[in-house]
Amino acid sequence: MFGDNTGMKLSLKDIALAIDGEIIGDSSLEIHGVASFEDAGPGEITFASDSKFLKRLHSSRAGAVVVPPDLDFPYIGANTKREECNLSSHNDQQHENYQQKNHQQESSQHKKNQQEYYQNEDTYGGNGESENHNDSASIVYPAIVKAENPKRQFFRIVAMFHPPLKPSESIASGVVIGKDFVAGKQLTLESRVTVCDGVTLGHRVHIMSGAYIGDNVVMGDDVVIKPNVTIMGNTKIGSRVVIHPGTVIGSDGFGFTPDLERGHEKIPHAGYVEIGDDVEIGACNTIDRGTFGKTLISKGVKTDNLVHIAHNVTIGENSLIVAQVGIAGSTTIGNRVIIAGKAGISGHLKIGDGAIVGPGAGVLGDVKPGEIVSGIPEMPHKIWLKVAKILPRLPELRKKILAIEKKLSILER
């Protein structure tokens, strides 16, 4: 959960210093909030990191925009209402000397830059009509902050305006706590939490309303368990883990043996789930315990909402699993793998390090490290792009093939 610092104001200089950015514009500009590129208005800051938005900088209503450090665009220094301030040097005298030295050059270049900017539609998103932009004094551009990885730096700024709320140390009335409970400092247990026997919690653990923590669960420091999460017995959770509402960790796997007389007989699942440090599990995930041994979610893994991970699956470090992915039992996912939305991974497979599985893919075989696959069954992504173009034409191609076959049969007579 995050706070809302309504009324908070920061100078652009303070923001640039916090993200090691370089300002082009008014360093004293007051920023009172953050917003998306489309919605940002005066006094708000946003970011632009790809061409879709960079070519529309001239139309932004934002007070300031965070952009890549190597961006070079024509209106730098053009607006006389803004001053250039290079905070990377933090040297005011150097800035003053720079301004004096370059003032004439910037002024003479101004009109040329403005004309090129608005006449070049392909490069800068202009409409090719410059008659409304002859007077530079009428154009107010957003201030610019150049910084490495604008998206990351922008969300650092978001955290400045919306810092995480720190819960007060407390155990609400009605919380059920079992035997042999061990907890670190600054524990927060909200209403209707159930903590079973033999549970060990680290420092600054926050468990929200309605959560269930099974027997012998172990958690590290700074763990946040959101409302109505179920964590079944023997689960091991590292530090700085966030688990979002409605998720179930450690449920039985889907294991049955067929029997002609008894039907499907359940296989007992005696294993557990282990979750590494710095993992974030989305809402309504289901992660099954191992049949024997563990289901492993390694450190740095992030899962979206509605993900299912079956028994004895291993997810490698820093992998990303997008919404509605299903991974069948005993499959091993490597490090830094990306599995896009609605993909399905069959059981007992190996997905190599750095592989990418496209959206909606059905993976029936192993995927090599670094390979990009899409489609059903999975195939190299470039091939899938060709297949996808052909698929809508299949009815038409079928008609043509049938017509050719008919002509051939006539000729053969």
Structure description:
By secondary structure, the chain is of the alpha/beta class. It has 2 domains: 10-161, no CATH class; 181-378, 3 Solenoid (UDP N-Acetylglucosamine Acyltransferase, domain 1), CATH 2.160.10. 20% of the residues lie in helices and 24% in strands. The chain has 7 helices and 41 strands. The strands form 8 sheets. It has a 10-stranded parallel β-sheet, with no helix packed on it. A 7-stranded parallel β-sheet has the order 17-20-25-28-31-34-37, with no helix packed on it. The radius of gyration is 29 Å and the shape is flat. Residues 75-137 have low confidence and may be disordered. One of its GO terms (molecular function) is N-acyltransferase activity. One of its GO terms (biological process) is lipid A biosynthetic process.
Reading off the top of the CATH hierarchy, the class of the largest domain is best stated as: Mainly Beta
Q: Mind summarizing the main beta sheet?
A: 10 strands, parallel
Q: State the end-to-end distance.
A: 79 Å
Per DSSP, the total helix count is 7
Instruction: Give the strand order of the largest sheet, numbering strands 1, 2, ... along the chain.
Output: 10-13-16-19-22-27-30-33-36-39
Low-pLDDT ranges: 75-137
Please describe the topology of this protein.
Elements: E1 10-11, H1 12-18, E2 22-24, E3 30-31, E4 33-34, E5 44-47, H2 51-54, E6 64-67, E7 84-85, H3 92-119, H4 121-124, E8 143-146, H5 150-161, E9 170-171, E10 176-177, E11 182-183, E12 188-189, E13 194-195, E14 200-201, E15 206-207, E16 212-213, E17 218-219, E18 224-225, E19 230-231, E20 236-237, E21 242-243, E22 248-251, E23 256-259, E24 263-266, E25 272-275, E26 280-281, E27 286-288, E28 294-297, E29 302-303, E30 308-309, E31 314-315, E32 320-321, E33 326-327, E34 332-333, E35 338-339, E36 344-345, E37 350-351, E38 356-357, E39 362-363, E40 372-374, E41 379-380, H6 381-390, H7 394-412
Parallel strand pairs: 4-5, 5-6, 6-8, 9-12, 10-13, 11-14, 12-15, 13-16, 15-18, 16-19, 17-20, 18-21, 19-22, 20-25, 21-26, 22-27, 25-28, 27-30, 28-31, 29-32, 30-33, 31-34, 32-35, 33-36, 34-37, 35-38, 36-39, 38-40
Antiparallel strand pairs: 1-3, 2-7, 2-8, 23-24, 40-41
